[in-house]
Structure formats: structure tokens, C-alpha cells
Amino acid sequence: MKTIEVVAAVIKNNNKVFATRRGYGDFENMWEFPGGKVEAGESWEGALRREIMEELDVQIIIDQFLTTIEYDYPQFHLTMHCFLCTLGKGTLHLKEHNDSQWVTKETIDKLGWLPADLDIIELVKEII
Questions:
Q1: How deeply is 106 buried, as exposed, middle or buried, from its count of CB atoms within 10 A (0-12, 13-18, 19+)?
Q2: What is the CATH number of the domain that holds 57?
Q3: What pTM was estimated for this model as a whole?
Q4: Quick one: which of 7, 17, 18, 115 is 20 to 30 A from 60 by CA?
Q5: What pLDDT was estimated at residue 79?
Q6: In angstroms, what CA-CA distances link 107 with 19, 41, 99, 104?
């Protein structure tokens, strides 16, 4: 089975985290933590900074590594490295997503999350 390696940003602001809704592909309209594929020769942190700039037009500060999620989708195996982040320079602007929300511990379960992202929700609740 093909493996895809990605990075994801859990962007925190006070007691909320930033969630984005996919605007394309097989999982269109499902919620996720923003990020994307790691390119050959790229560090996880470098990939995350690049992906967030490409998707959200903002710089992030990577505060700490959270966890790596391993998830088997029908067509591929996903390895997702998750980092706790805060916003840096710039203003959030959705380029690839069709919606976003700042969610709290009380509202995070109300979204229709991508299956792999569901695996980190309990950890995220502990952080916020």
C-alpha cells in the first residue's frame, strides 16, 4: 500500500484551535487541521511552514511536536506528524479550503472531521 507522509498544524489561540474545511477532492467539505504533504528532502517543520503559507497565507510559529498519527485509508496509508502552533505574521486567508472555524473543547466534536484527524481530537481537547 502506498504511504503518504503529511504534516498538520494545530494552531492555538487562547482556548481555541483553528479548523479548516476541505474545498476539494474525495474528502471535500470534511474538517481537518491544515497542512499537507512533505516533499522529498524537506523537514517536517519546513514542510509545515510552507504548506501553511500556501494554504492560509500566514506564517506560523511551531511551538512543539504533538504526535504522529498512522491511519489506513482504503487507497493509501497516511503518516501525519502533528504540531502545536501559534500564528505569526500575516492575516489568515483561505486559499484551498471553503470554510474555517476557531473551535473550543465544547464545539470541536460538532464538526465532521477527516478520519485521521479524529485520532488527535482527544489530545487537542487536553491542550485547549
A1: exposed
A2: 3.90.79.10
A3: 0.95
A4: 115
A5: 98
A6: 11, 37, 15, 5
